[in-house]
Amino acid sequence: MKIVTDADNFAGAKLAPGDALPAPVSIGREGARTLRAGFIPLVDAAVLIVAAEFGFAQREGITLDLVKDVSWANVRDRLAFRQFDIAHMLSPMPVAAILGLGSNPSPTIAPFSLGRGGNAITLSNRIYGLMQREGELAGDEDALAHARALATVVRNFRASGKPPLTLGVTYPFSSHNYELRYWLAAGGIDPDRDVKLVVVPPPMTSDALAAGAIDGFCVGAPWNMVASERGVGRIVATKQDIWPSSPEKVVGMRPEWAETNPETVSRLIVALDRAARWADAPENRTALADMLADRRYVGAPVDIIRRVLAGEFTIDREGNRRVVKDYFSFHSGFANVPRPNQALWIYSQMARWGQAPLSTAGIEATLSAYRPDLYREALGKEAPPIGSDAAIEGIAPGDRFMDGAVFDPKGMKDYVASFAIRATGHSQLPSEDI
């Protein structure tokens, strides 16, 4: 097989394990390296898996030793304790770490984003049935209508003295937590008062729903479709419904490790860029699904993974379907740029929900967590043009928030204060002008 090495043609390079690779590029004074990388079994770990299995890391003089873990807390701790060199991480984790939030915070930076998309919200059949009856759903409603119907159910539970619904998220500092909260609040549900949020590891969400331990969850692919295919839940919203550009997963590393190994970091970014281009190409999706289905990685049925990659959903036990365009973007649309304004949106949600006070110092720290400078330095002319990191989010066609709000990083305080449903108390906004 001819291997395409021109950067513009990498998306079409049909590499397979064992294929001949071009000679490694010059690897400089740091030499060939083995990097131990932690990951969680999710489809959005694809770029790391492709880089390791299809030769993109090898070409840059890097061996990726991928280690599947069971929880985000484990990944966080093992990176902090130097058991991992790099890690597949939730996009808010470097922000939380740099702000000193959560257990065992250790400074972490993100020089590469692993793409966009992949999340969804699934509710139990019992709860969705109540939404249909009490919220008068016809079956073809959008995400906001579903949230409002759930609000009716929640109010009726409270009025009748029933315990609140229990909903699962994968980690307190996660896109899943903030997206679920955003969806609930847009429908009129206070996520801290009207329901109970608990942490459930991604591979356990479907089983927890089936057992009745939770009433719904927000998680990454393929676990929402696993639940719907099993007939135990209904998918009621996807990431694209809430905010298409919501940041998802990143590659995290310790800042001192990055400073000590600058050439290795650059070579890693180049390898991941090539892998992301390959993963985004439609003609490679069959091979990608086959690899992800391997028990070493995601370990879900290959048919489900293929349909998830195509955005083709079975949303309920009746077999109803929905197609979500660009449900996964591994490279297109500048999906690999760690955009500082997205880090700031994450910080705004931490402030909104009482996880962190809003301050100028917090904004500066947040900006230091995402490192587009390392990304651009590694890719040079191949990097996308520098955009405005202070861009207003939610105004571009096809990239709007579900409630019509817009996010202006320059008006953080007003943005957080504009929400009728938000946390109060110790995290109330300071009086300083930010």
From TrEMBL:
GO cellular component: endomembrane system
Pfam families, per the entry: NMT1_2
Keyword NAD: no
Coiled-coil regions listed: none
SUPFAM superfamilies per UniProt: Periplasmic binding protein-like II (SSF53850)
CDD domains, A to Z: PBP2_NrtA_CpmA_like (cd13553)
Principal location: membrane
Superkingdom as given in the UniProt entry: Bacteria
Localisation per UniProt entry: Endomembrane system
Record bears the keyword Cell inner membrane: yes
Keywords: Cell inner membrane, Cell membrane, Membrane, Transport
Protein name: ABC transporter substrate-binding protein
Organism lineage string: Bacteria, Pseudomonadati, Pseudomonadota, Alphaproteobacteria, Hyphomicrobiales
